[in-house]
Design a protein that fits this description.
single chain; 161 residues; 2 strands; 2% strand
Length: 161
Amino acid sequence: MIIYSNPTSSSAWAPRTQHFTSAARRVLEHAQAEARRLGYNYIGTEHILHCLLHDSDVAATLSRLSVRLRSVRELVDDLIGTDSHGRRSPDVPLDWDGRARRVLEDLVPREVLNAGHHYAGVEHVFLGLIREGEGPAATVLASLGVHLKAARRAALAGASP
């Protein structure tokens, strides 16, 4: 499954989402809007995680892992803050940073294949963020004891397309 756009395009990179559920697409759209609202000049894993926290399936997964949603929200809010991060014109498309691209191009499809699914849902995006391992989102989750194997079991236990 290829979920990225043509890299030779003159516009900013954007994930292809034809295999994403509507909920997963909404998360990515909201991540872009949140990054823009906060004045970032890129969309990162921290913005994706911030928006995933509003999804009931991700909240349930964190609950199954005994992680308080409020704790994750506080850490992510502290991380992304409200300061200007290279203001851009509202008409200029934001680009996804390298870690977010890797999550969406490589790690989400791996999670889809591991689960034997034919769609990419919010659970796959969440697992892709954890699997990435080094970015802001993965760092926040690891600091709260969220690790890939347990998260995969918890996320897929409640997965629904």
